[in-house]
Amino acid sequence: MVVSGRLAGVAAAIAAVCFGIAFVLPAWAAIALGLVLLVAVVAIDTLRIAPIDGLQFARDAMTVVRQGNSATVTLSVTNAGGATITGELWEDWPDSVRQSVHHHRFTLAPHTVVRMRTIVTPAHRGDRDAGPITIRSFGPLGLVGWQFTRDVPATVRALPPFRSEKQLRSKVKLLQHLEGRSLTDIRGAGSEFDSYREYVVGDDVRAIDWRATARSNDVIVKTWRPERNRSVLLLLDTGRTSAALVGDGTRLDASIEAALLLGGIAAEAGDTVSLLAFDREVRAEVRGTSGSRLQSRLMHGLSSVVPRQVDADCAAMVRAAITRTPRRGLVVWFTALDGAMAEENLLPALPPLLNRQRVMFVSVADPAIADAAAERGSLADIYTAAAAESVLAERALVQTTLRRKGAKVVSARPELLASALADEYLDLKQTAQM
Q1: What's the number of CA atoms in the CB half-sphere (13 Å) around residue 204?
Q2: N or C: which end of the chain has fewer CB within 10 A?
Q3: How far apart are CA 402 and CA 339, in angstroms?
């Protein structure tokens, strides 16, 4: 049983009345009368409390919203009983959901429905389950009531914010422009014949079709366009290095942003995209998907991916990538290219993957390190700058080694990473390497 603030007011009023009649009756009689009145009032209110057995609760099992955006979660309460119910209700969501309203008051006549709306603005990616709801049903005087809890399952799924989505349209237009003008004149591997045209200065002479030229008064060349339906695997390292703070988020956050933009462009290019989030085991996976379904599947697949406090097993990641890409395609590996980690774990595991796939490494450059390397204001700053320069030199050496082995490397500040990766992919398309 619970009591409301009204009970204190009623008790004070009864006490005032009893104090007034204490001049007529003995003190003990006045006190006894006051207690009897208070107990009687409470008993009457308690007996008139409507049972909540007829209350029925429902809400959507899943509410999907992007991180940082707001969505409305509706709780429907139905009174299937025969008495009017007056009460209060509390919803319990995790703090990271940032619900706008915790407490609702309601009066429900028989066979009516009330909808209670709560605005949620998730601060982090992932699924957040609702806790039990608490209901208090009061009597007609609102003095006392009964309290119950009920489980009404519901989940809020916060998808990645995908702030780079505004760049997607411009990158896709560039892709369409390149495809529309017969992307390349190069007879490169991974290209498909498109059409014939007259030779112009600057064309590769290897593109001349001598048979077509013999039948024409002009020199004729073949034009080529990149193949569609190529395989692209987005391989995300979710080990401890992905938890490092860079800019306003983690390395993993910046990698997810870039992966979403690349996935959207690849889908428009007609490629089949897969996703694998991995450290020592698979954390999330999206099997080969293309077209309009891809973006949604990537966002849902990445919504619950978080960094793990373990060292990534690069050899296991290579094996997983090879298993999931039976034909030659592009593997885009999002990871940190720190010197010690790369020399011990990454570089020794790479040869089998490089022999089978085109590999592109994507690494988030920490702006704090670059800023520290440029600071020379004091002696302490000089020592810090020297350490930062050493880190930058190690990473530059790793990137040079990877390029010499035939891999592509994209490294940029978190706010520029998605655009830089998209441009590198478009360059591969333009040169018929993808």
Answers
A1: 11
A2: N
A3: 12
Same domain for 286 and 215: no
pLDDT band at 180 (very low <50, low <70, confident <90, very high): low
Return d(Cα 145, Cα 21) in angstroms, integer: 31
Residue 307 covered by a domain: yes
Host domain of residue 127: 55-159
Query: Residue 187: what residue type?
Result: R
The structure tokens listed for 243 are 């938890």
Number of domains present in the structure of the chain: 4
Residue 182 resides in a domain: no
From residue 411, how far is each of 175, 223, 344, 398, 417 by CA, in Å?
22, 33, 20, 12, 7
Identify the residue whose tokens are 């593997």. 331
Rounded to an integer, what distance in angstroms lies between the CA atom of residue 278 and that of residue 281? 6
Query: In the listed set 159, 183, 205, which residue is the last one of a domain according to the structure?
Result: 159
Q: DSSP secondary structure string, 137-165?
A: EE-TTSSEEEEEEE----EEEEE---TTH
Closest CA to 289 of 306, 307, 273: 273
Contact 203, 221 (CB under 8 A): yes
Task: Say how far apart CA 138 and CA 252 lie, in whole Å.
Answer: 50
CA distance 360 to 277: 16
- Residue-wise pLDDT for 96-148, tens only, equals 999 998 999 989 999 999 999 999 999 999 999 999 999 988 888 888 888 89
Please say whether the beta carbons of 353 and 321 come within 8 A. Answer: yes
| Angle of helix 165-180 versus helix 251-268 axis, rounded to 10 | 30
Q: Compute the C-alpha angle 158/289/355, nearest 5°.
A: 115
Query: What are 413-429's pLDDT values in tens digits?
Result: 999 999 999 999 998 88
Same domain for 211 and 349, yes or no, is no
Using CA atoms, how far apart are residues 132 and 134, in angstroms rounded to an integer? 7
pTM of the full structure: 0.79
Q: Is 347 left (phi over 0), alpha (psi -120 to 50) or beta?
A: alpha
- State the amino acid at position 148 in one-letter form: F
- First CA to last CA across the chain, in angstroms? 70
C-alpha 63/C-alpha 76 separation (Å) is: 15
393 & 327 share domain:
yes
